Amino acid sequence: MKIQKNTDCDVLVIGAGLTGMIAAARASCLGLNTIQTGNSSALFFASGLLDLLGVYPMDSGKIIKDPYSGIKKLQSDQPEHPYSKISQKQIRDSIQFLTNFLNSAGLNYHLSGPGNKQILTSVGTFKPTYAVPETFSNGCDLQRQEKNLLIVDFKGLRGFSAKQAASGLQKRKGKTYTLSIDLPGNKNGLNPVHLAKSFESKEFIQELSDKILHFSSKTQIVGLPALCGIHNSFDIVKTLEKKIGMAVF
Q1: Which of 7, 104, 157, 167 is most buried when burial is the number of CB atoms within 10 A of its CB?
Q2: What pLDDT does residue 186 have?
Q3: Each residue of 58-82: pLDDT tens digit?
């Protein structure tokens, strides 16, 4: 049975993705009566990374440290590009609005300076990005860190291998260790949503902490797949850090 309801608004945003979310948030903050509508969004499975400009020119594969200097060149080279239609101040203000909005919703973001950060992907490569969730801040620019690192995966979880991720860190000064945890009942593979919900259990966090603590004499920082809870990942990561006495991302 479908329930029909008539209502009025100043702005109707159709689409439940990132663009729709930002448009609805901005309109609402401007005092406009706003309604957002759409099907279930894939944002639930998004990386959470906010890219600005990481590689330019694209065919060169050149990684850019300062995205705004890259945008300046792009605006000169491609006057029809969307970035060329607005000023750098508008871009900065928009990024600041988005991160402030997310922070107000409890989704803390890490913005340290104007430059891109190099983050380790699950396949052992590095990707430039502009802003990351606060839960990932300890994992930025790992190739420059000298701390010993432990990367943890869960058997049966597809798309994330601790050993494969560690392969991109062979040249760093600190040592990299891996730990693969086998959870009960994962013979047919682990559902990522179910695993994320498990992180919200105190018992699960304690069991995970006990396994990680075996490496406490060797490592100072721990990396996990981005599944640390559904609603309160930041608090979960902080709780885990307190239990193991190590930084977590």
Answers
A1: 157
A2: 66
A3: 888 889 999 999 999 999 999 999 9
pLDDT for the residue numbered 207:
95
Q: How far apart are CA 74 and CA 91, in angstroms?
A: 14
Cα separation, 114 vs 103, whole angstroms:
18
- pLDDT less than 70: residues of the chain: 1-3, 41, 112, 185-188
- CA-nearest of 145, 147, 148, 142 to 125 is 142
Are the beta carbons of 133 and 227 closer than 8 angstroms?
no
Number of Cβ within 10 Å of residue 119's Cβ equals 19
Pick the CATH number of 141-248 from 3.30.200.20, 1.10.10.10, 3.40.50.12500, 1.10.357.10: 3.40.50.12500
Cis peptide before 57 (omega within 30 of 0): yes
Q: How far apart are CA 222 and CA 220, in angstroms?
A: 7
> Rounded distance, CA 222 to CA 195, Å?
18
pLDDT value at residue 218: 94
Residue 74's pLDDT is what?
95
Q: How many CA atoms lie within 13 A of 32 on its CB side?
A: 15
Q: Exposed (0-12), middle (13-18) or buried (19+): which is 187, by Cβ within 10 Å? A: exposed
Q: Return the pLDDT at 3.
A: 67
Can you give the pTM of this predicted structure?
0.86
How far apart, in Å, are the Cα atoms of 221 and each of 75, 91, 131, 213? Answer: 40, 34, 20, 11
**At residue 81, what is the residue type?**
H
The percent helix, strand, coil of the chain (3-state, each to 5) is 40, 15, 45
